[in-house]
Each structure stands twice: as C-alpha cells, then as structure tokens.
C-alpha cells in the first residue's frame, strides 16, 4: 500500500451515529482497507461475527461488546456476516464545543493511543442502558432540535461513564488531581509528540521537570510497564504502520523514526518483535 492509505480520514461531521448494518450494506459486505481517522470511534456491538483489527492486534467480534478507537489508530472491521450494532464518531472539536475536557476521555482509560485496545465486554443490564442512550441520541440527531449538540454531548458523556463503570479499574486511575496521573498523562502526550526524536526516558523527564528515576517509578506503578517500555511500544507501533502501509524503504523508515543508522533500527525491531523489519513486511504483519 502507499502512504496515502494511512492519511487520517477527516470527519464529515463533528458527531455522527450510524448503525453497523447500514455501514455493512453500503459497503456491500466488503471489508475496508486498514485506515485511521482523525476522530474518536466507538462501536457498540449487539452481535457480530468476524474480527476487528486495531493497531495490529486482532480482536474477535462477538455479542455485547464496546470497541474504542482513538484518533490516529489504524483499524479495520472485518464482519463475516451482517452485524447488529452502532458506530459513534466524534471529534476533539465536538468535545471542546460541549465543554468536555479531553482529560475526561484520557482518564476513563477506554481509548488507548497505542498498545493493546481490547473490547469491553458488557452484561445484559449495561447493554440495555447503553442501547437506551443510543435511542436518545437518535432522537436528538435532527438539526432542528434546540441545543442539539449539548444534548448529544451530555448523552455521550453518560454513555462513556457507564462503559467506564463496567471496567475493573483502580479508583486512583480516575482521580484528575492525582499527581501521578498528571505525570503519566504528560508523559504519554510527550511520547506522541516526540517519539521520532526522543528515545530516552531522560528526554521526557527533563521536559516535565522531574528525574528519570521518579518518572520511571510513577509509570511502573500506574501501568505495570516501565517508561522505556512505553517509548519503545510507540516506536514499534509506528514501525509496523510504516512497514505495512507505506512504500518507504527500511532505511527511510529508520531515519524517519530518529535512528542514526538503519542497522540500529533493524536490531531494535528484531529485539522487540522477534523478526526483522523486512520479514514483517513480507509476511504482511
């Protein structure tokens, strides 16, 4: 594939709600190519068969699930039969216009910018709650409704809060005033902005004015991974995206990701994945 296939698809509207059935029928049952959006996507799956690829992790489509895709993540829905469910999309601009801080989206820990993004499995009661909210959203969609976006914003928050309450999370992970959570958020934001140029924990620690040791300890306590692991996870993810979805050479990818020598990049990739960049590309992931 060429680089164009990885360009982020812009939103047609800032908030949209569609049925999975309608999307499936418009596509004639064909699977879309892997792609990424510049907006948030939520799939509420009542029932489906097939697979959902999110950043090279494959998840089985089933019954009573919610799938979350963050802006920039590469994903592909491969439905083996006509599914039943809904797809909600919304932009950062929609959040801002409705006074929903993006910090809220970060803290609920449903959308993952990189790493594993498994679907949320629902019990029957939670699915019923979420489908009722979807029905309310549908009734708010007509443009003539006064305060339409405010209503949709409130319903979206309620939907995500119910989803969050289905997760088994440590309550400290939801505390917006927790200093560790703030550091982790700043670190993740820093990785997203600078992973191509900064490969060392010390670079990020300096940016947020703490010691590398303190940053590593906070990240380890909250995520179970080291700060170095998160940096390397982001580099590997981008490596895979570029290898599978662009025609860039391994050498060009190495330089684009901030490696001084292509050999260093190849050694890093092999150490982290068990195979060479070329082999990964040839095998199609």
Concise account of the structure shown:
The protein has two domains: 3-168, Regulatory protein AraC (Jelly Rolls, Sandwich); 174-283, Homeodomain-like (Arc Repressor Mutant, subunit A, Orthogonal Bundle), CATH 1.10.10. It is 47% helix and 16% strand.
Blueprint (SSEs and pairs):
Layout lengths: L14 E5 H7 L8 E2 L3 E8 L2 E5 L2 E5 L3 E5 L4 E6 L4 E7 L1 H6 L4 H6 L12 E2 L2 H17 L7 H18 L13 H16 L6 H7 L4 H12 L3 H19 L4 H7 L5 H12 L3 H7 L2
Antiparallel strand pairs: 1-8, 2-7, 3-6, 3-8, 4-5, 4-7, 6-9
What does this structure look like?
Helices cover 47% and strands 16% of the residues. By secondary structure, the protein is of the alpha+beta class. The protein folds into 2 domains: 3-168, Regulatory protein AraC (Jelly Rolls, Sandwich); 174-283, Arc Repressor Mutant, subunit A. It is globular, with a radius of gyration of 20 Å. The two termini are 13 Å apart.
- How many independent structural domains? 2
CATH architecture identity of the largest domain: Sandwich
Low-confidence residue ranges = 169-174
Approximate helicity band: 40-55%
Backbone shape: globular
Total of helices:
12
Mean pLDDT: 88
> Secondary-structure element sequence?
EHEEEEEEEHHEHHHHHHHHH
Distance between the termini: 13 Å
Fraction of residues in β-strands: 15-25%
Structural class, by secondary structure, is: alpha+beta
CATH class (first level) name of the largest domain: Mainly Beta
Radius of gyration: 20 Å
The CATH homologous superfamily of the largest domain is termed Regulatory protein AraC
CATH topology term of the largest domain? Jelly Rolls
Number of strands: 9
Largest sheet: 5 strands, antiparallel
Strand order of the largest sheet: 1-8-3-6-9
Oligomer: single chain
